[in-house]
Amino acid sequence: MGKLDGKVALITGGTSGIGAASAILFAREGASVVITVNNNMEGGMAVVKQISELGGKSLLIKADVSKEEDASRAVAETIDAFGKLDILFNNAGTTTTIRLHEATCEEFDRVIGVNLKAVFFTSK
C-alpha cells in the first residue's frame, strides 16, 4: 500500500527532470498522475509509458499553463478523468540563457508567464 493510494496528482511540466521523476514517484506511491506538456510531447509520452509499466494510471494533457484557459482546462480535464484533484505540483518552469540587459520584453513575459502566472492560474 502506497502513501498516495487513491490520490490524484496534477504535475505541470512533468515531462522531464524533477517533474518526470516526481510523476513516477507519485505513481509508485499509488497516485493517479496527470502531467501537462507544452513542447516535449515525446518526453510526456515516455513518462506516461513508464507509469503504465508500473501498473499506474496517468493522463497526458497538452497545455500551455502560462495561459489561463489552458491551465483551467488542465484542472478540469483532471477532474473529469479521475473525479477529483488532491495534489497540485506547480513544477513547470523556464528561463532564458541571455543576460537580463539583452532580454526582450517578449522573453521576459514568457519567463514570468511560465514561472509565475502558471502557478496562479492552476492554483486558482
Question: Strands, helices and their partners?
Answer:
Elements (H helix, E strand, L loop, with lengths): L7 E4 L5 H12 L3 E6 L3 H13 L4 E5 L5 H15 L4 E3 L15 H19 L1
Parallel strand pairs: 1-2, 1-4, 2-3
Helix pairs in contact: 1-2, 3-4
Quick summary:
With 124 residues, the protein is of the alpha/beta class. The protein contains four helices and four strands; from the N terminus they run E-H-E-H-E-H-E-H. The protein has a single domain, classed as NAD(P)-binding Rossmann-like Domain (Rossmann fold, 3-Layer(aba) Sandwich).
Distance between the termini: 31 Å
**Measured on Cα atoms, how large is the radius of gyration?**
15 Å
Give the strand order of the largest sheet, numbering strands 1, 2, ... along the chain: 3-2-1-4
Provide the succession of SSEs: EHEHEHEH
Largest sheet: 4 strands, parallel
- SS elements, strand count: 4
Structural class: alpha/beta
**Annotation field: number of helices:** 4
Low-confidence stretches: none
Overall number of structural domains: 1
Q: Mean pLDDT, rounded to whole units? A: 93
CATH class value: Alpha Beta
For the record, the CATH architecture stands as 3-Layer(aba) Sandwich
**What is the CATH fold-level name?**
Rossmann fold
The percentage of residues in β strands lies in 5-15%
CATH homologous group name: NAD(P)-binding Rossmann-like Domain
Helical content class? 40-55%
Shape: globular
